[in-house]
Design goal:
alpha/beta, TIM Barrel, Oligo-1,6-glucosidase, domain 2, Immunoglobulin-like, eight-stranded parallel β-sheet, binds calcium ion
């Protein structure tokens, strides 16, 4: 395994709009991030990933970029970004930008040209097609509801938009598009940016036959996810841009199992440092957005284990995450946001920092922030949530109350409410009313409180991060699943050169007994005689024995 800085790093994701508002206009901004660098250093993270801060009309909160080389006015200026980068670098914290190059905004100059006429030099920068039988060219659906095609009167053709109609898809078949995008990437690398998170990057190659889709989710994805030329395009991009720098690259890749993932991240492919998988955060939405099912821990264990073993075998790497700006809060999903909020938040954090890969912490996760409890469907801001609500209302299968319950569980807004810094009005995020409603539990859950309390989620995350730095086994230890059939406990080893770790995670709200003797074949090789408890989310000084009782949501890391 090759040593790389990003394998040792813990990444902290910042959604600038909701992190900290420096000028009290209700919108978080870059100077707000600068004000919180001490906080990031205190937590101990090595890199920051900023969600898009480029110029954008904000149809999808910055994922619709109108100028790749300019900063959104609401967020500040290019000078602010440069200052943030310098100040982070002074503390040895790297900075990673979000790169959205599957699509642009319809207000990007390329699209404004493109839509003017069929012979405009920019026409082929986007995907234009004639309609069929008085309708769109095929049946593909957008991720945000509705058809993936928009009719444009001016030239009597349709353009493709896999997301909102203000996010037209770029035509990667066109070499000029690729060249222009590579210039953008080089420009940022030359500025000193340490890497990129590449938005829906496995959607860039569309099957050029543009056939009707037959699989739901959204309809047509079999023709645009992991498409025919995706690896060719990515390798070309990598070799022309970031592979010539010491950069970290994280491909965001929906519709991807481990076998597909290896094509992007196996070391010899030289495409991405790692990907952002989805399967493990979709185990409670098997029937789609509106159907909520419980987590089956066995499924999570099987999935994580398959990824861990196959990555190991192929020298591949992955990101480890539970939360981001698209995901509802994990403590409200796989944990318990009631009486065991702290315990379960710490337990999930333990998993995140003890598997092999690079942990990503999303703002607020380190204090155990929970899902929201909005009282009105109109309070939801997110374009995806509004799209689903609209479609579901049309279907008429759900009452207003049910829709509210579903949206409060599922909406991306769960992650997007302002960060809780203290218990002041607006939680210390701003002095003005924020752009989106607050989560109303900020008086109980906030940074100030966590910093003052010994057993806070924040302190626990801080310890996890520092352990990871101290013991290389967290980074390079080999993974081995234990107690494979257990429905409540996820247990595994990490076997390193100097130390080994035993990790025990109780996912249930009950006390459970485990018996490691049953793991006979594996245990035989182990010497637990001087095992030492490194970290636990309960006050305990128990020695390791092969028969143990684990308290609700207990998490333990032993070193032996
Ligand atoms: O997300 C892509 C993506 O797969 C999401 O649509 C995801 O499936 C969904 O939100 C889960 O509820 C990326 C960005 O992270 C997201 O914020 C953008 O809206 C999207 O791309 C378009 O750029
Ligand atoms: Ca502001």
């Amino acid at each position: 395994m090759h040593k790389k800085w990003w394998k040792e790093a813990v990444v902290y994701q910042i959604y600038p709009r909701s992190f900290n508002d420096s000028n009290n206009d209700g919108i978080g901004d870059l100077r707000g991030v600068i004000e919180k660098i001490d906080y990031l250093e205190d937590l101990g993270v090595d890199a920051v990933w900023l969600n898009p801060v480029y110029k954008s009309p904000n149809d999808d909160n910055g994922y619709d970029i109108s100028d790749y080389r300019a900063i959104m006015d609401e967020f500040g200026t290019m000078e602010d970004l440069e200052e943030l980068m310098e100040k982070l670098h002074e503390r040895d914290i790297r900075i990673i930008m979000d790169l959205v190059i599957n699509h642009t905004s319809d207000e990007h100059q390329w699209f404004e040209e493109s839509r003017k006429s069929k012979d405009n030099p920019y026409r082929d920068y986007y995907i234009w097609k004639d309609g069929k039988n008085g309708g769109p060219p095929n049946n593909w659906r957008s991720f945000f509801g509705g058809p993936a095609w928009e009719y444009d009167e001016q030239t009597d053709q349709y353009y493709l938009h896999l997301f909102s109609k203000k996010q037209p898809d770029l035509n990667w078949e066109n070499e000029k598009v690729r060249r222009d995008l590579f210039d953008v990437i080089k420009w940022w690398l030359e500025k000193g940016i340490d890497g990129f998170r590449l938005d829906v990057i496995n959607l860039i190659s569309k099957d050029q036959r543009f056939l009707d889709g037959t699989k739901e989710g959204p309809l047509g994805f079999e023709y645009f996810a992991n498409g025919p030329r995706v690896h060719e395009f990515i390798k070309e991009m990598a070799d022309n841009t970031y592979n010539n720098y010491d950069a970290m690259t994280v491909g965001e890749t929906p519709f991807l199992d481990i076998d597909e993932a290896l094509k992007f991240v196996a070391e010899d492919r030289e495409e991405f440092s790692m990907v952002i998988p989805f399967e493990h955060v979709e185990l409670d939405r098997k029937e789609g957005w509106a159907e909520i099912n419980d987590l089956d821990l066995k499924e999570l264990k099987d999935l994580m284990s398959e990824w861990q073993y196959k990555l190991e075998a192929n020298n591949g790497w992955t990101s480890l995450y539970f939360c981001n700006h698209d995901q509802p809060r994990i403590v409200s999903r796989y944990g318990d946001d009631g009486i065991y909020r702290k315990e379960s938040a710490k337990m999930l954090g333990t998993m995140l920092h003890t598997l092999k890969g690079t942990p990503f912490i999303y703002q607020g996760e380190e204090i155990g922030m929970t899902n929201i409890n909005f009282k009105d469907l109109n309070d939801f801001d997110d374009i995806e949530t509004r799209g689903y609500i609209k479609d579901l209302k049309k279907d008429g299968d759900f009452s207003e109350e049910e829709l509210l319950r579903i949206a409060n569980y599922r909406s991306r807004d769960n992650a997007r409410t302002p960060m809780h810094w203290n218990d002041d009005k607006y939680a210390g995020f701003s002095e003005s009313e924020p752009w989106i409603k607050m989560n109303d539990n900020y008086p109980e859950i906030n940074v100030e409180k966590d910093l003052q309390s010994e057993d806070s989620v924040f302190n626990y995350y801080q310890k996890l991060i520092s352990l990871r730095k101290e013991y290389p086994v967290f980074v390079d230890g080999k993974y081995k699943l234990l107690l494979e059939k257990d429905q409540d406990v996820y247990a595994y080893l990490r076997e390193g050169k100097d130390n080994n770790l035993l990790v025990l995670l109780n996912f249930s709200s009950e006390e459970v007994k485990i018996d490691l003797c049953k793991e006979f074949e594996i245990i035989e090789e182990l010497d637990f005689s001087d095992a030492e408890l490194m970290l636990s989310n309960y006050q305990t000084d128990k020695d390791l024995s092969l028969k143990l009782k684990l308290k609700p949501f207990e998490a333990d890391i032993y070193k032996y």
